[in-house]
From TrEMBL:
Self-association and partners: Hexamer formed by 3 homodimers.
Family according to the record: Belongs to the NadC/ModD family.
PANTHER family noted in UniProt: NICOTINATE-NUCLEOTIDE PYROPHOSPHORYLASE [CARBOXYLATING]
Function as written in the Swiss-Prot or TrEMBL entry: Involved in the catabolism of quinolinic acid (QA).
Annotated pathway: Cofactor biosynthesis; NAD(+) biosynthesis; nicotinate D-ribonucleotide from quinolinate: step 1/1
Keyword annotations from UniProtKB, A to Z: Glycosyltransferase, Pyridine nucleotide biosynthesis, Transferase
Protein name: Nicotinate-nucleotide pyrophosphorylase [carboxylating]
Organism, scientific name: Lithohypha guttulata
Reactions accelerated catalytically: nicotinate beta-D-ribonucleotide + CO2 + diphosphate = quinolinate + 5-phospho-alpha-D-ribose 1-diphosphate + 2 H(+)
Biological process, per Gene Ontology: NAD+ biosynthetic process; quinolinate catabolic process
Protein origin, superkingdom: Eukaryota
Molecular function per GO: nicotinate-nucleotide diphosphorylase (carboxylating) activity
Top enzyme category: transferase
Length: 126
């Protein structure tokens, strides 16, 4: 599977361009998953051919509304999976479960670090 996160999308310029590039590298054998912060981003990912849309950092109510809306809007036109992710734990996961979600990613204790690239920041020469 190829997972496209915000840095990949930023580097390619759009969700559509990132999915196209991932599909060209991965071919038919690998699924492409796109991290989406909004329902509009999920629509773009689905239209571009993503196999999995990860709805990241939604509230429990927000994820249920967005997942149902996506299912209804794309019914009969595209097949895709919906993943709920971002801050889900053993204690709060029940609030995120619904029939329109296929995958639930929960968090476990971990070291949190980021490899984000700052937009417009030049890297100093070494």
């Amino acid at each position: 599977m190829i997972m496209l996160k915000d840095n990949h999308i930023w580097a390619k310029g759009s969700i559509t361009a990132a999915v196209k590039a991932a599909k060209s590298v991965g071919g038919f054998a690998l699924k492409v998953e796109v991290e989406c912060q909004t329902e509009e981003e999920a629509d773009e990912a689905i239209a571009a051919g993503a196999d999995v849309v990860m709805l990241d950092n939604f509230t429990g109510d927000g994820i249920r509304v967005a997942a149902k809306s996506l299912r209804d809007r794309w019914k009969g036109t595209r097949e895709f999976l919906i993943e709920s992710s971002g801050g889900l734990t053993e204690d709060n996961v029940r609030g995120y479960i619904c029939n329109d979600i296929d995958i639930i990613s929960t968090s476990v204790p971990h070291v949190d670090f980021s490899l984000k690239i700052e937009h417009g920041t030049e890297v100093p020469a070494t």
